Amino acid sequence: MKRLSIKLKITLYFTVIMTVLAGILLFYTTTISKSVVRNELYETARVSVMKLCDSARYKSPKFEENVPPLGQSKPENGKRPPSTTDKPEGAEFTVDENAKFTDGDVFLCIYAIDKESDTPSVYGALPEGVSFDVSTAKNEQKTTLSSGTEKYYVYVKQIRNPGNKDECAWIVGAIDATISSSFTKGTLRLASLAVPFIILFAALLGYAITKRAFRPVSDITKAAAEIAGSNDLSRRINLEGNGKDEISNLANTFDGMLDTIQNNYDREKQFTDDASHELRTPVAVILAQSDLALSPNATDEDMREAMSIINKQSLKMKKLLSELLTLARSDNNKTVLEKEAFDLVELAEMVIEEETYISERKNIEITLVSRTPVEIFADKTAIMRVLINFINNAIKYGKEGGFIEVNIERYEENKARCTVKDNGIGISENDLPKIWDRFFRADKSRTDDGHSSTGLGLPMAKSIIEAHGGTVNAKSVLGEGSVFEFII
Ligand code: ADP
Fold this sequence. Notes:
Blueprint: H1 6-54, E1 56-59, H2 63-66, E2 92-95, E3 102-103, E4 106-113, E5 121-124, E6 141-147, E7 150-160, E8 168-176, H3 178-230, H4 246-294, H5 300-331, E9 339-343, H6 344-359, E10 365-368, E11 375-379, H7 380-396, E12 403-411, E13 415-422, H8 457-467, E14 471-477, E15 481-487
């Protein structure tokens, strides 16, 4: 059973259920038809008996015969003339001459009980071998009588002698019961011949329907096998018909899942390509500069210059690797936040102090708008990296002699908002949505220091803030300046 396909299993269950149902139906049909036919036969017998009742009755002697001739006070024969109040004593049981004792399939018989005679007078006859016991008879009785293998349904009607309560007549109608059993047998035989064919037909039809319904599953299996075999993630099931049933839903979900896998795969691939490309450049510069420094003709000056370039490139690589690591951790949901309560304003003051050394080179003034403490519960080192990135960018992309305003304030009930505003080169409307993408850098020629830019700073800042359940945002006007914000 385990090895059978679902299609076959469903057909099998369905066929078994059909067979059981057909059996139950057959049983009830036979039982009901049996009882319907039996009742009909009793009714036929009853109607025939009632017909015969019209031809049989108890009759009183005619009164006129006993009436004395005119003028006689006493009747000649000494009998008293009957009065109208007299009971019709001595009523006799009579059966019309034209009374019929067979009516269609019904055998009719009358047993008249006379109090003066022990044996009843019998009119008509029951089928051969069938005897009726008048001593146990009841009025309107329905019973069965048999002779050998023959069975009869019998209906009994009593006619009472109105003048003598001890006298009565039983009118008995008997009809062959095999008419009923032969009908039931016929129905059964017909049904038992037809039912297997009906079940077989239903099973075949059921299998065809199940096969058709399961066809999309085969398509899904085929597509999945092809994708697995070819490694082609661009393939889709694209189920025909685009129905709304469960299997179409499954196929669409499967296609949706492949979309996600392909997107993630493409992103990962792009990320790896970009990362190796970003690392290749500083490594190449370091190799070239170290070769230069090691060459026999290198002067002290050359060596110092080479070492300075190597140092810059190494710092860039360090920054790049650290940002890559942060992003990789956040991608794998492995960012471990070491949260603590601290004053964000105090942290900003510290970062500003450090960054002032760099900003002074461009004559950019950094100011902290408010010094009101704003305490937050977060990973201090991670938030510091975000602040450094925002302020560093504001300096990097700031204009000579420009300004940077850092503002930290309470946001909503227990959140903090930090904005870093500059009047630098700004970002074009087109580039603004892309700045959070990994390795994105707006036109490098616009920056003053292409060497220190990695295109990973903002994505890293975003991942850190989002890991804290916060949000980042940027507004900018090209040529006028930008405002970077995080809410945590
Ligand atoms: P990086 O600064 O190392 O290039 P980031 O991810 O920090 O990488 O920034 C991505 C890009 O966003 C930058 O290359 C720059 O074009 C733009 N950008 C970021 N901050 C500013 C800013 N304050 N002013 C103008 N452009 C900015």
